[in-house]
Design goal:
Chain lengths: ~250, ~35
């Protein structure tokens, strides 16, 4: 499938309808997610209405990590097979990923201000997630700072692959360090989710909505890059008449 | 009707406000030419 999509023309044929589908699906999931999150879901015992923050905090954290995973995988594909389309996918994941990381940190801080009585603690989860934001910013800075985009892709790709070590640290930080205030894995557990269905509904709507929204943003970005590249190639192409003229002059 | 979230009002509305801003911002980012 990846091999099939690595042709820009084929990717374009696939991504134009697929991005539209993902965009509309994201809207259809996020709007009811916001409704259930804000209005139709009950208060939680011990957290009151503050639990509603969770319906934007957890999905944004999930999407931030998913985007980084995509960057790491695409960087690996690009590193082995040297395919520019994989670089474009990785590059286009970075900005939305960084913004969702910042959103997860900000909403987490708001959540902490009420449930932990502090805006920030240097626990394993918070710190590793802050490191994720810095890796994202470093990755974006490398792409922005270098004119040679092939070299930028190589260096940024290596940093992204090394930085992927942070993903399991984020995931398992709640198990490895006992002093963390974050709760342990709640949704993906062997005994099934530890959430009431009334809370799972807005959480899942937002989680899938944010995920499809990320896919939409990334696909739009890659399509834009393909078109820009094609326009640049067309501008630089020499017509047969120009070639003959150059030959005659020389 | 705007729901009353009591003492959580500020943090809940700020979190959702930020989330909506991010979604709108990324929507514009995705639509750029």
């Amino acid at each position: 499938m990846i091999n099939w999509l690595s042709n820009p023309k084929r990717f374009e044929r696939f991504a134009v309808p697929a991005s539209k589908f993902c965009g509309w699906l994201a809207l259809l999931l996020i709007l009811p997610g916001l409704y259930f999150g804000l209005f139709a879901s009950p208060e939680a015992e011990g957290f009151g209405h503050g639990v509603r923050i969770l319906y934007v905090h957890a999905p944004s954290a999930w999407v931030a990590m998913a985007a980084y995973s995509a960057i790491a995988v695409m960087s690996f594909i690009s590193f082995i097979w040297r395919h520019p389309l994989a670089d474009r996918v990785a590059y286009n994941c970075a900005m939305p990923g960084a913004i969702f990381t910042a959103l997860a940190l900000a909403t987490g801080s708001l959540w902490g201000s009420q449930s932990w009585m502090t805006w920030w603690v240097w626990d394993g989860r918070n710190t590793s997630f802050l490191v994720l934001l810095f890796i994202y910013l470093g990755y974006i800075a490398i792409w922005a700072a270098m004119d040679n985009k092939r070299l930028a892709a190589r260096i940024a790709g290596i940093i992204a692959m090394v930085g992927a070590i942070n993903l399991p640290i984020i995931k398992f930080s709640v198990d490895w360090w006992d002093d963390v205030l974050h709760q342990k894995a709640t949704i993906m557990t062997i005994d099934g989710p530890g959430f009431a269905p009334s809370m799972m509904l807005p959480l899942m709507l937002m989680l899938f909505g944010f995920s499809f929204f990320l896919i939409w943003v990334v696909m739009r970005g890659v399509l834009r890059d393909i078109r820009k590249q094609r326009d640049a190639t067309a501008r630089n192409a020499i017509t047969p008449a120009q070639a003959t003229l150059t030959k005659m002059k020389s | 009707m705007i729901p009353d979230f009591g003492k959580y009002g500020f943090v809940v509305w700020t979190a959702y406000g930020l989330a909506i801003l991010v979604l709108l911002g990324l929507w514009l980012y995705g639509r750029r030419k």
